[in-house]
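Tutorial, part two.
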Amino acid sequence: MNGKILTIAGSDPSGGAGIQADIKTISALGGYAMAAITALTVQNTKQVFGVNPVDAKIVADQVTAVLTDIRPDCIKVGMMASAEIVEKLAPIFSDYNDIPLIVDPVILSTSGHLLLDKRGIEILISDIFQSITLLTPNLMEAALLSGMDDIVTIDDMKRAGEKMLCMGVKAVLIKGGHLSSDILTDILMTSDKSSEYSSPRLNTTHTHGTGCTLASAIATGIGQGMGLESAVLRAENYIHKAIAQAPGYGHGKGPLNHAVTIDS
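Running the prediction step on this input gives:
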């Protein structure tokens, strides 16, 4: 087992997203998973019924307890759930900025409902962006964070990426799954280059937890000593196979098959 990964995210009782997806992904790719829970959600494959944030101090205490004992090789952050949690985590990430930080900014639901309020988003941008090794927004999140009205083309994705790089993140992977195309394209951008990762769109509804899974897979690769581009490529291959071999559970957007194996 190689690569100690701390995931900070909400709990999904249906097992397809959040902490549960993160732990499965990290373990499947050979890492050691640790977890700090930010929220207890009430959800299944059909819908989210409720989000109950954990007390911000308890979240920070969970994270500090891990950092001062089993020091992670990479930290992955998903749903932070409240402005108070973002505020508590910001100085911790600053103090431990030698540990790579992968942030999947869970701020909008698929239906467009805000999962992090305006103040939380402002703190994320002002106090955490400069600590982020890689930000992994979907199109809606990228538009909100970059201040763009909408993102509907590959060029729009690149413009949003440039804006977020200027805001302080070291790299951004914009996920293009919501573009209307038979080919899915994600774009990785750093200060000196951009790379595209494309794959055929799979005809399936079983995509619950793809964002959590992708970010955790990348974090595992980084924690195992892989370069950013290599970690992203392995994660992209892993998630494509996990979707293709989804078990078909649930009556809505079902979970992926996190147990798939891929060539490293």
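The chain has one domain: 4-244. In part three we will examine how such features are distributed along the chain.
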